[in-house]
Design goal:
Helices cover about 55% and strands about 10% of the residues. It is of the alpha/beta class. The longest helix has 30 residues, at about 190-220. The two termini are about 30 Å apart.
Length: about 290
Amino acid sequence: MRWEDFRTSTNVEDRRGMGIPGGRGGLGIGTIVILGLLGWALGIDPRLLIGGAEMMQRGGFQQEQQEGRRGAPTDEMGRFAANILGNTEDVWSKVLPAQANRQYDPPKLVLFSGQTQSGCGFAQSAMGPFYCPLDKSVYVDLSFFEDMRRRFGAGGDFAYAYVIAHEVGHHVENELGILPRVQQRQREVDQRQANQLSVRVELMADCLAGVWAHNSEQRYQSLEKGDIEEAINAAQAIGDDRLQRQTSGRVVPDSFTHGSSQQRVQWLTRGLESGQISSCDTFRAERL
């Protein structure tokens, strides 16, 4: 992927190497692993359990201001993330008005290491990259990409770009008003139905990542041989069924929150092929 040719976004806050305000630490790795296993067994998103435990340890949620370095990072991985973000800004600023008649207000990218404070609460690297709709920011610990390569065999610059674009896809969902409606509905239904709604949100973000890549290629000829295969391999590697099988040795479909490997590949591919937001409506699809 020719990411070096992309415009570098300055809408980046770099908190790497910074601690949590007040110097309070997080959970131990053993506790995080146990909560992760418990989450999969009970059908609860492990990030919710981890975040809740962190909040209890810290005496409840307190929104604390934390500011990092603003502007373009200078290290290679930081520049990579900033350039991918810049390209998503350039693409979605054209695609969203043209296809959805909405102006695009881009998210902020927060780079952190280990742990940080988000508008949605305490965040740890173990949670993986995520989007917080309350502060309209994407949070990424760049060490996650090394974990993708080492633990899941899902390396490559386009695979990493897909992860960032997926989180930006959640921001597009937020811009379209989808996330607030889903979150309201999740509060009204049982855990199994809430999980099913979460799967639809995640698969739509996969598809929107494909829409970004399609339009980026059309405008900037950014893809190289093997890039699509990298993204598909990454989507397969982080499917709920594959992760559950690796973690606990069994698969519990009712506990899926992101979708199976097959579903994630299917919806990513749909966006890649169509380049259209309308093709990503997982909420009207009878079968995922």
